[in-house]
Amino acid sequence: MSALLTLFDDGGFNPRSLFASGEQGIWLDPSDFSTLFQDSAGTTPVTAVGQPVGKILDKSGRGNHATQSTGASRPTLQQDSNGLYYLSFDGADDGMATPSINFTGTDAVTVFAGVRKNSDAAAGILAELSTNSDSTNGTFELVASVGGNNYYAQSRGTVRSTINATGYVAPHSAVLVAEAKISTDILRLHVNNAAPLSSATDQGTGNYGNYPLYIGRRGGTSLPFNGRIYQLIVRGAESNAGQIAAGEAWCNSKTRAY
Question: What pTM, to 2 d.p., does this model score?
Protein backbone atom coordinates (compact mmCIF):
# COMPACT_ATOMS: atom_id res chain seq x y z
CA MET A 1 0.00 0.00 0.00
CA SER A 2 1.35 3.46 -0.87
CA ALA A 3 2.27 6.03 1.76
CA LEU A 4 -0.61 8.18 0.57
CA LEU A 5 -3.23 5.47 0.82
CA THR A 6 -2.23 4.54 4.37
CA LEU A 7 -3.39 8.00 5.47
CA PHE A 8 -6.96 7.44 4.35
CA ASP A 9 -9.79 6.05 6.41
CA ASP A 10 -13.08 5.08 4.75
CA GLY A 11 -12.02 6.96 1.64
CA GLY A 12 -11.23 10.28 3.35
CA PHE A 13 -8.03 11.80 4.69
CA ASN A 14 -8.00 12.94 8.31
CA PRO A 15 -5.16 15.33 9.21
CA ARG A 16 -5.17 13.79 12.70
CA SER A 17 -3.24 10.92 11.10
CA LEU A 18 -0.27 13.25 10.70
CA PHE A 19 0.11 13.11 14.48
CA ALA A 20 -0.49 9.38 14.92
CA SER A 21 3.08 8.62 16.01
CA GLY A 22 3.17 11.24 18.75
CA GLU A 23 4.32 14.18 16.61
CA GLN A 24 3.99 17.57 18.28
CA GLY A 25 1.97 20.26 16.52
CA ILE A 26 -1.41 21.82 15.90
CA TRP A 27 -4.38 21.57 13.52
CA LEU A 28 -6.86 24.43 13.35
CA ASP A 29 -10.05 23.88 11.35
CA PRO A 30 -12.48 26.85 11.22
CA SER A 31 -15.02 24.70 9.33
CA ASP A 32 -15.63 22.70 12.53
CA PHE A 33 -17.99 24.79 14.67
CA SER A 34 -17.49 22.48 17.65
CA THR A 35 -13.94 23.89 18.00
CA LEU A 36 -14.90 27.59 17.91
CA PHE A 37 -15.72 29.90 20.81
CA GLN A 38 -16.41 33.62 20.94
CA ASP A 39 -14.46 34.12 24.17
CA SER A 40 -10.93 33.07 25.11
CA ALA A 41 -12.19 30.97 28.03
CA GLY A 42 -14.14 28.74 25.66
CA THR A 43 -17.54 29.20 27.30
CA THR A 44 -19.55 30.85 24.51
CA PRO A 45 -19.73 28.80 21.30
CA VAL A 46 -19.55 30.34 17.86
CA THR A 47 -22.90 29.63 16.21
CA ALA A 48 -22.91 31.83 13.09
CA VAL A 49 -20.71 33.71 10.68
CA GLY A 50 -19.78 37.23 11.68
CA GLN A 51 -19.09 36.25 15.27
CA PRO A 52 -15.65 36.77 16.85
CA VAL A 53 -13.40 33.79 17.54
CA GLY A 54 -11.63 34.11 20.88
CA LYS A 55 -10.64 30.46 21.04
CA ILE A 56 -10.17 27.69 18.49
CA LEU A 57 -9.43 24.17 19.65
CA ASP A 58 -6.49 22.20 18.34
CA LYS A 59 -7.65 19.02 16.56
CA SER A 60 -4.21 17.39 16.44
CA GLY A 61 -4.74 15.80 19.84
CA ARG A 62 -1.90 17.79 21.41
CA GLY A 63 -4.08 20.36 23.16
CA ASN A 64 -2.37 23.39 21.62
CA HIS A 65 -5.47 25.58 21.46
CA ALA A 66 -5.21 29.14 20.11
CA THR A 67 -6.80 32.08 21.90
CA GLN A 68 -7.17 35.85 21.87
CA SER A 69 -8.12 37.54 25.15
CA THR A 70 -8.63 41.03 23.69
CA GLY A 71 -12.09 41.32 22.18
CA ALA A 72 -11.20 43.87 19.50
CA SER A 73 -8.29 41.72 18.29
CA ARG A 74 -10.24 38.55 17.62
CA PRO A 75 -10.64 37.30 14.05
CA THR A 76 -14.17 36.64 12.88
CA LEU A 77 -15.70 33.53 11.38
CA GLN A 78 -16.82 34.12 7.80
CA GLN A 79 -18.05 32.06 4.85
CA ASP A 80 -17.04 32.57 1.23
CA SER A 81 -19.05 32.24 -1.98
CA ASN A 82 -18.20 28.54 -2.16
CA GLY A 83 -19.71 27.95 1.28
CA LEU A 84 -16.27 27.45 2.89
CA TYR A 85 -15.54 28.77 6.37
CA TYR A 86 -12.49 30.76 7.38
CA LEU A 87 -11.05 33.05 10.03
CA SER A 88 -10.96 36.64 8.79
CA PHE A 89 -8.02 38.77 9.99
CA ASP A 90 -8.39 42.53 9.58
CA GLY A 91 -4.77 43.53 8.88
CA ALA A 92 -4.79 45.89 11.87
CA ASP A 93 -4.78 44.15 15.24
CA ASP A 94 -6.29 40.67 14.82
CA GLY A 95 -4.26 37.68 15.93
CA MET A 96 -4.21 34.55 18.06
CA ALA A 97 -1.59 32.60 19.97
CA THR A 98 -1.11 29.22 21.60
CA PRO A 99 0.68 28.46 24.85
CA SER A 100 4.27 27.35 24.32
CA ILE A 101 4.48 24.30 22.07
CA ASN A 102 7.41 22.04 22.87
CA PHE A 103 9.18 21.28 19.59
CA THR A 104 12.51 20.63 21.32
CA GLY A 105 12.37 16.95 20.37
CA THR A 106 12.61 17.64 16.64
CA ASP A 107 14.61 19.61 14.08
CA ALA A 108 11.98 19.11 11.35
CA VAL A 109 8.64 20.73 10.70
CA THR A 110 5.94 20.74 8.01
CA VAL A 111 3.43 23.59 7.84
CA PHE A 112 0.24 23.34 5.76
CA ALA A 113 -1.98 26.39 5.31
CA GLY A 114 -5.02 27.28 3.24
CA VAL A 115 -5.14 31.08 2.99
CA ARG A 116 -6.24 34.11 1.02
CA LYS A 117 -4.34 37.38 1.26
CA ASN A 118 -6.35 40.54 0.62
CA SER A 119 -3.45 42.96 0.25
CA ASP A 120 0.25 43.21 -0.57
CA ALA A 121 0.65 46.56 1.18
CA ALA A 122 2.47 45.07 4.17
CA ALA A 123 3.90 41.82 5.47
CA GLY A 124 1.42 39.64 7.33
CA ILE A 125 2.31 36.75 9.63
CA LEU A 126 0.40 33.55 8.95
CA ALA A 127 2.17 31.45 11.60
CA GLU A 128 5.35 32.07 13.58
CA LEU A 129 7.02 30.14 16.40
CA SER A 130 8.22 32.63 19.07
CA THR A 131 7.79 36.39 19.20
CA ASN A 132 10.39 36.92 16.47
CA SER A 133 11.89 34.14 14.37
CA ASP A 134 14.33 36.58 12.75
CA SER A 135 16.40 36.67 15.94
CA THR A 136 15.32 33.64 18.00
CA ASN A 137 17.04 30.30 17.52
CA GLY A 138 14.96 27.18 16.93
CA THR A 139 12.08 28.88 15.16
CA PHE A 140 10.14 29.04 11.89
CA GLU A 141 7.57 31.24 10.19
CA LEU A 142 5.21 31.42 7.22
CA VAL A 143 4.34 34.89 5.92
CA ALA A 144 2.21 36.54 3.24
CA SER A 145 3.45 39.53 1.25
CA VAL A 146 6.94 40.19 2.59
CA GLY A 147 7.99 43.13 0.46
CA GLY A 148 5.24 42.67 -2.10
CA ASN A 149 3.47 40.00 -4.16
CA ASN A 150 4.90 36.92 -2.54
CA TYR A 151 4.78 34.20 0.10
CA TYR A 152 7.73 33.65 2.40
CA ALA A 153 9.02 30.88 4.65
CA GLN A 154 11.82 30.88 7.17
CA SER A 155 13.58 28.34 9.38
CA ARG A 156 16.29 28.97 11.93
CA GLY A 157 18.46 26.64 13.97
CA THR A 158 21.30 28.94 14.99
CA VAL A 159 21.37 30.50 11.49
CA ARG A 160 18.43 31.82 9.47
CA SER A 161 17.39 30.38 6.09
CA THR A 162 14.66 32.01 3.99
CA ILE A 163 12.74 31.34 0.82
CA ASN A 164 10.59 33.70 -1.22
CA ALA A 165 7.93 32.67 -3.77
CA THR A 166 7.14 35.72 -5.92
CA GLY A 167 4.51 36.63 -8.49
CA TYR A 168 1.37 36.10 -6.40
CA VAL A 169 -0.51 39.38 -6.50
CA ALA A 170 -3.26 40.04 -3.94
CA PRO A 171 -6.08 39.27 -3.72
CA HIS A 172 -4.79 35.72 -3.99
CA SER A 173 -5.76 32.33 -2.58
CA ALA A 174 -3.14 29.70 -1.88
CA VAL A 175 -2.49 26.35 -0.31
CA LEU A 176 1.00 26.62 1.12
CA VAL A 177 3.26 23.82 2.32
CA ALA A 178 6.54 24.68 4.00
CA GLU A 179 9.05 21.92 4.76
CA ALA A 180 12.08 22.53 6.95
CA LYS A 181 14.80 20.49 8.61
CA ILE A 182 17.65 22.16 10.44
CA SER A 183 20.26 19.40 10.41
CA THR A 184 20.10 18.81 6.65
CA ASP A 185 19.44 22.47 5.68
CA ILE A 186 16.10 21.69 4.02
CA LEU A 187 13.73 24.56 3.31
CA ARG A 188 11.02 24.14 0.67
CA LEU A 189 7.89 26.12 -0.11
CA HIS A 190 5.03 24.74 -2.24
CA VAL A 191 2.35 27.10 -3.59
CA ASN A 192 -0.84 25.64 -5.04
CA ASN A 193 0.57 22.21 -5.87
CA ALA A 194 3.38 23.61 -8.02
CA ALA A 195 6.91 22.26 -7.82
CA PRO A 196 8.42 23.64 -4.61
CA LEU A 197 11.03 26.32 -4.41
CA SER A 198 13.96 25.27 -2.24
CA SER A 199 16.88 26.72 -0.35
CA ALA A 200 19.94 24.86 0.94
CA THR A 201 21.23 27.74 3.04
CA ASP A 202 22.92 26.64 6.25
CA GLN A 203 20.48 26.65 9.20
CA GLY A 204 23.11 26.01 11.85
CA THR A 205 22.39 23.42 14.53
CA GLY A 206 19.89 22.37 17.15
CA ASN A 207 16.20 21.58 17.34
CA TYR A 208 13.18 23.86 17.31
CA GLY A 209 12.28 25.51 20.60
CA ASN A 210 9.50 25.65 23.17
CA TYR A 211 7.62 28.83 22.27
CA PRO A 212 4.08 30.02 21.58
CA LEU A 213 2.82 29.83 18.01
CA TYR A 214 1.52 33.22 16.89
CA ILE A 215 -1.16 33.27 14.20
CA GLY A 216 -2.06 36.35 12.17
CA ARG A 217 0.33 38.71 13.96
CA ARG A 218 3.98 38.73 15.09
CA GLY A 219 4.18 38.34 18.85
CA GLY A 220 0.68 39.75 19.12
CA THR A 221 2.02 43.22 18.34
CA SER A 222 3.15 43.67 14.71
CA LEU A 223 2.96 42.48 11.08
CA PRO A 224 -0.81 41.84 11.11
CA PHE A 225 -2.19 39.61 8.35
CA ASN A 226 -4.94 41.00 6.14
CA GLY A 227 -6.82 38.00 4.83
CA ARG A 228 -8.29 34.60 5.50
CA ILE A 229 -7.07 31.40 7.11
CA TYR A 230 -9.11 28.36 6.09
CA GLN A 231 -6.80 25.69 7.53
CA LEU A 232 -3.58 25.60 9.49
CA ILE A 233 -1.62 22.43 10.28
CA VAL A 234 1.83 22.43 11.86
CA ARG A 235 3.47 19.02 12.17
CA GLY A 236 6.71 18.73 14.12
CA ALA A 237 8.23 16.15 11.81
CA GLU A 238 9.60 15.63 8.33
CA SER A 239 6.75 14.57 6.02
CA ASN A 240 7.00 12.15 3.13
CA ALA A 241 5.59 12.77 -0.35
CA GLY A 242 2.34 10.97 0.42
CA GLN A 243 1.73 12.95 3.59
CA ILE A 244 2.46 16.22 1.82
CA ALA A 245 0.15 15.37 -1.07
CA ALA A 246 -2.67 14.34 1.27
CA GLY A 247 -2.30 17.38 3.53
CA GLU A 248 -2.14 19.71 0.56
CA ALA A 249 -5.25 18.16 -1.00
CA TRP A 250 -7.11 18.39 2.31
CA CYS A 251 -6.32 22.08 2.67
CA ASN A 252 -7.39 22.74 -0.91
CA SER A 253 -10.72 20.99 -0.31
CA LYS A 254 -11.31 23.56 2.44
CA THR A 255 -9.93 26.54 0.47
CA ARG A 256 -10.43 25.85 -3.27
CA ALA A 257 -7.33 27.82 -4.15
CA TYR A 258 -6.61 25.77 -7.31
Answer: 0.95
